Amino acid sequence: MEQRDRVERDEWQEAAAEAGAAATAAQRDAVAPAAGSEGPGVLDFPPMPAEPEAEAVPLTITGVQLFWLRMPLVAPFETSYGRVDRRECLLVRLEARHPEAGVVEGWGEVVADADPGYSYETTGTAWHVLTEFILPALPGRTFATPGQWRAACEWVRGHPMAKAGVEMALLDARSRARGVPLWQEYGGDPARRRIPVGVSVGIQPSLDALLATVERFLEQGYRRIKIKIKPGYEVEPVRALRQRFGSIPLMVDANAAYTLADAGRLRALDDYGLMMIEQPLHEDDLLDHAALQRQLATPVCLDESVKHVHGAREALALGSGRIINIKQGRVGGPIDARRIHDLCRRYGIPVWCGGMLETGVGRAHNIALTTLPGFTLPGDTSGSDRYYHEDVIDPAVRVGPDGTVEVPQEPGLGYRVVPERVEKYTLRHRSWHAS
Ligand code: NPQ
Ligand code: MG
């Protein structure tokens, strides 16, 4: 009896295993891209990219300062989720001692805004996490590599923008201690002396206003125009821009405002030769992005959906898009931005550097990040004057008539942070020092 049971169970298990294998093969066939189409199938897992190697540069943190800034924008900026006329952010300033170089400073930017419109993080949540859990523990600690900093803050779940601000400051301090330009800390390509940039244009009150705004940016030399869209406002503005400006490099960004039920509206954009459609669907819906991409000729670009290197890997495996927008704040800092870059490069997925209306501090870090070789499309690192009458750095970030920004070659940010301007826009300030 006992013996028979076992035999029956074994037969059942064999049949189940066979059925499972058949189902797996069918699923694989169902999701595999058609012959000749791009992108890996869902079961071709790209391996996790390794953490980049870094030279040991022992920096002992002697002081930390945190600034909460509010800066007026030159013009209101409207997206599918709202309209802002001022920008908030946190600036992190580290002071650190190096055995040979002495005391150096380093600046980073927490790109969260006042409201949780783009992501759940806000200046308030970042202030909370940094002041309660991360910054008080820093004075007296020594980090020889960015990886050691990562290990120290890993216990804090989430809050990528808060962590990224500190990591940027550490990279700036390292570059000053080593006496090398910031792009070298990011692992950039020395041949990239200038980076091509584009501009992001908010939703405008009228089509005439849109045409006038885009014309002004094209005259300034920007290499790519991105307009914000929302359901019901997509085909009309794109058609108007194509009629007026012909085949300019053009793309749209929906900031997650559509659902798969709107696929028809998005398919209508296929006729206009857009470079890409950025983040059409919900940030957590990689599956529907994969389904949508299969219905579109235009590449889907992911922004909000790529929150970390793990998610980037899932998106590549699923075919959720053909392009990735990398924002170092959104993905937790420069190191993971680089790992996502490395992953995408390996799989032939082009990337570009996104923008969060950064002050000059974040902007300088974005310029450095963009020197990595996989950044083959113009990013959103516009000139300072796109957003601010007065930036906190000197000189301001300037876009040349050829639509490029120079990559600074001196150690550190390559721009001077002006203390009086930081102070002028600061709402709150806190500092910590080694005892
Ligand atoms: C994007 N940025 O690519 C974001 C979204 C965005 C340049 O288009 C305050 C702070 C307002 C951050 C508006 C660009 C913002 C913001 C939009 C980020 O989706
Ligand atoms: Mg975007």
What's this model, at a glance?
With 435 residues, this protein is α/β, with parallel strands linked by helices. 35% of the residues lie in helices and 21% in strands.
Write the layout of secondary structure elements.
Layout: H1 2-31, E1 59-79, E2 82-98, E3 102-110, H2 123-134, E4 142-143, H3 146-153, H4 160-178, H5 182-185, E5 194-196, E6 199-201, H6 207-219, E7 225-228, H7 235-245, E8 250-253, H8 263-268, E9 277-278, H9 286-295, E10 300-302, H10 309-318, E11 323-326, H11 334-346, E12 351-353, H12 360-369, E13 393-394, E14 404-406, E15 416-417, H13 419-425, E16 426-433
Parallel strand pairs: 6-7, 7-8, 8-9, 9-10, 10-11, 11-12
Antiparallel strand pairs: 1-2, 1-4, 1-16, 2-3, 5-14, 13-15
Helix pairs in contact: 3-4, 6-7, 10-11
Detailed description of the structure:
By secondary structure, the chain is α/β, with parallel strands linked by helices. The N and C termini lie far apart (76 Å). The chain is globular and about 60 Å long. β7 (225-228), α7 (235-245) and β8 (250-253) form a beta-alpha-beta unit. It has helices spanning 2-31, 123-134, 146-153, 160-178, 182-185, 207-219, 235-245, 263-268, 286-295, 309-318, 334-346, 360-369, 419-425; strands spanning 59-79, 82-98, 102-110, 142-143, 194-196, 199-201, 225-228, 250-253, 277-278, 300-302, 323-326, 351-353, 393-394, 404-406, 416-417, 426-433. 35% of the residues lie in helices and 21% in strands. The strands form 4 sheets. Strands 6-7-8-9-10-11-12 form a 7-stranded parallel β-sheet. N-acetyl naphthylalanine is lined by residues 77, 79, 84, 87, 113, 118, 200, 253, 255, 303, 354-357, 380.
